[in-house]
Fold this protein.
Amino acid sequence: MTNVAIIGLQWGDEGKGKIVDFLASKFDAVIRFQGGHNAGHTIKIDEKVYKLNLLPSGIVSNKFSVIGSGVVVDPVALFNEIDKLKAAGIEINPSKLVIADNACLIFSFHNQLDQLLEAQKQEKKIGTTGRGIGPAYEDKVGRRAIRICDLKDENNLKERLENLLFYHNLLRRSLGVEDLSVAQIIAEINPIREKLLSYTKPSSEITKILKGLKNIMFEGAQGALLDVNFGTYPFVTSSNILSGQVALGSCVGIKDLDKTIGILKAYITRVGSGPFPTELTDETGDFLRIEGHEFGTVTGRNRRCGWFDAVLVKQAIDLSSVKEIALTKLDVLDKLDKIKICVGYKIDGQDYDYLPSDISLWPKIKPIYEEIEGWQESTIGTKSIKELPIKAQNYIKKIEGLCNVKATIISTGPQRDQTIVLEDILSN
Ligand code: GDP
Ligand code: IMO
Ligand code: MG
């Protein structure tokens, strides 16, 4: 039995969906353990493109799928996604998809609040996906969230909603928006309440089911630099992303995770605001955006693009006990004559091998680069390491050395088979 977590090590959009889909055939189940429908995971199989937000990517290959207790669930978005996938020929029913009954719900007022608070921040905004993720997690830690299990009993639901709306209406009045009533929220959830409950199981039952399976894959959303503890706070999402969250959000114990594969893009991108020491605002940045199709899956926003930053990912690698990586989008660098890698920072003349938490230092960061010759040959769709140009192989070795990891998978295109496997991830 080998249970594996797939975690993004940058600011998201590293290609997690592609790698989860590529590996899915080896696993009995795929589990989402944090985040919500702020995620946008793309899977390309021949001419078909699937964009998954809340559903585990394994669902596309008919794998048993679990939405764990660490996820925040917008039920309207969930059923829209299920309907879209069903229309594309994917089979989804309560024996294929199970949702933990202690997962917390996102309602439309969470989205509204997310957007209102962002608008108020003006140029200081985080650049959230506007999907209510932050407000929903705030309610969770504030102990007032509605969990899926609260939908079962009408009287309990009304009581829980009164408690929740007491808080939200105070906030809404201060923002100049109308109060909400319990009846309004019940009217929002009622049309899909029974359907949602039919997909739900007690978390203890999910634990039992998972114990009976051989290989489980835990599918991370977002990326380590967006982690609410260790990311570029406050420009982060509202959940924990590092591998420790697997145990907290999946209905399994900490010893049920055998290894974590970190997903690294061969350069780096970010959507939304926040520090980005290696950002390229010149034509090379535009080149990466166009060549890598770096436009947000969820919001369609332009992704900011920059050189690979080894400083940023090192801490995430240590904190998630990552020894193996999947390096994606190598092909996007094919045409460049020079490629840079950031190996350190200078701030006020002092060397740093980590990103300081003190945000007042961020504007002063000067990246220290090593320059590497580009290979200027197409690597798209390459399936064996020997077929890669030597200079591309050297680039991979450089990243392995700087980050002290082994690349076991190299992705050379968006399609499932555009992949080089250097080692079977279940064999060690
Ligand atoms: P995720 O959020 O980590 O799953 O990543 P996204 O799906 O948001 O963004 C990754 C994008 O890159 C998607 O459009 C993928 O189809 C695409 N992609 C994944 N791997 C590769 C690759 O190796 N090369 C290229 N050119 N595109 C890739
Ligand atoms: P995947 O799983 C990239 C970013 C948002 C914003 C910040 C907070 O596709 O890699 P939120 O709505 O979560 O409160 O927004 O986090 N963000 C992502 N960026 N990929 C994602 O997911 C993201 N999910 C959230 O752009 O900067
Ligand atoms: Mg994405």
